[in-house]
Amino acid sequence: MRTIKFINADVQSVRLFIEDLKQGAENFRYFQSRPIEIIHNHLATILILNESDYPVAYGHLEKEGDILWLGLAVADRYVNQGLGNKMMNRLIDLAKQNDETAISLSVDKTNLKAQKLYLNHGFQKSLETKTTALYNLRLN
């Protein structure tokens, strides 16, 4: 993939991304228990589009009380192309621009690629259950 662009997501684009997520949907269940329209309440909802303007990666920042949650997913056929890193960098920058002091996220314990991504971006594991791990990042 040569050219990508970031866009602020709309409901239709997010729906298109989720429908095409395939196996990645096993690890990204955010919308299984929430309506897609929740993106209107996010601090940020971003998609990365490929050269054909098709959504290939998703990310969001969602404020829940005092906690800023990060969510991220990359379409299966675009994994290992650096999109997770690009999305993570964009979301962290947006959190800093909004004067946030920390970011939290939850991930399946079996999703080792995602956990490696989070650790590479400075997140630290703060809690582990039987099935998930909670990571936190302090922002300067």
Which labels suit this protein?
globular; 24% helix; 3-stranded antiparallel sheet; 4-stranded antiparallel sheet; 7 strands; 140 residues; Aminopeptidase
Provide an overview of this structure:
- The chain is α+β, with helices and mostly antiparallel strands and 140 residues long.
- The protein has a domain at 5-100: 3-Layer(aba) Sandwich (Aminopeptidase), CATH 3.40.630.30.
- Helices cover 24% and strands 34% of the residues.
- The protein has helices spanning 11-19, 83-97, 112-120; strands spanning 5-8, 44-49, 55-64, 67-74, 102-108, 124-128, 132-138.
- The strands form 2 sheets. The protein has a 4-stranded antiparallel sheet with strand order 1-2-3-4, sandwiched between helices. Strands 5-7-6 form a 3-stranded antiparallel sheet, covered by helices on one side.
- 26% of the residues are buried.
